[in-house]
Design brief:
The protein is built from 9 helices and 5 strands, in the order βαβαααβααβααβα. The protein is α/β, with parallel strands linked by helices. The longest helix has 24 residues.
């Protein structure tokens, strides 16, 4: 089983929110090796993840809030109560259609038309960068966790890989090379990332304490080793095939592979993988 839904009525709407196997790379701050992680995951034949989509989940949250605030009128403007689960179905399909996950087809198609069902999702570095319109709309909440909390509502059986960089000096230096920070704002940026890493780590531990260790995996850049990547495969439910090498991507901040980064075949026995793409009959 990919995940366990906390919602009793998750399949009672126009879709089953747990039908698809969703996987997300939560890169906290960027420059955490998330492109390498993305391509390592995509080396598995059952996985199709996409890169950053300009904070797509924040757009989905704005739609959720806009619809939830729609008033109910009388007379010619009378409307029925909005079904939260049906709206979540629509928003989940919105995300799926937007990321265009390979040859995957829309959840609205018939089972015969759906065909193979990859593990799908995306990687994003803006999870904790909440715009003022959203943070002010939910007063009293920890805004650094707002998108993550919404994602667990929208994808109740989704899984999350927390990808961080423990060496703050190296992280800040990498930001500076890209022009993301300068002498006047580097310290504030470092403090912000330190805060959101602590919040994400707390969430990770909460899930584990609740018996939901399937929900998240913690993978710092400094732990990018073959044994740790193979532990990640085991967490995903992969029992057979294993990584033999590690990609070295985003070479010189170019999103290209390191020309000396090793073989493109990081799972040499991928045909033996037990985590497969089921075909819907």
């Amino acid at each position: 089983m990919w995940g366990r839904s906390p919602h009793d009525d998750v399949a009672a709407a126009r879709c089953d929110l747990c039908e698809r196997r969703w996987l997300f790379v939560v890169s906290l701050g960027g420059r955490t090796g998330s492109t390498t992680l993305l391509n390592m995951l995509n080396a598995h034949p059952a996985v199709v993840l996409r890169g950053e989509d300009h904070n797509l989940l924040a757009d989905a949250l704005r739609l959720w809030r806009t619809v939830s605030l729609q008033p109910f009128f009388k007379g010619p403007f009378l409307r029925k109560a909005i079904s939260p689960n049906n709206l979540l179905c629509d928003l989940q399909r919105f995300v799926e259609d937007t990321i265009r996950a390979g040859r995957e087809t829309s959840a609205a198609m018939t089972k015969r038309q759906q065909g193979s069902r990859h593990i799908i999702g995306l990687k994003e570095i803006r999870w904790m960068d909440i715009e003022p319109d959203l943070s002010s709309a939910y007063p009293g909440r920890d805004s650094s966790l707002l998108l993550l909390d919404f994602a667990t509502l929208l994808f109740p059986c989704g899984r999350f890989i927390f990808n961080v960089r423990s060496d703050m000096a190296a992280l800040s230096g990498s930001w500076a090379k890209l022009g993301w920070v300068n002498d006047s704002n580097a310290h504030a940026k470092e403090m912000h990332i330190t805060k959101i890493k602590a919040a994400a780590w707390k969430k990770h531990l909460e899930w584990r304490d609740r018996g939901s260790s399937w929900r998240s995996f913690w993978l710092p850049l400094e732990n990018f080793t073959i044994p740790n990547f193979n532990e990640l495969l085991s967490w995903m439910g992969e029992d057979h095939c294993r990584f033999a090498e590690i990609f070295h991507d985003n070479y010189n901040r170019s999103y290209l592979r390191d020309p000396d980064g090793g073989s493109m075949v990081v799972i040499p026995d991928s045909q033996t993988c037990s985590l497969r793409v089921p075909t819907v009959q």
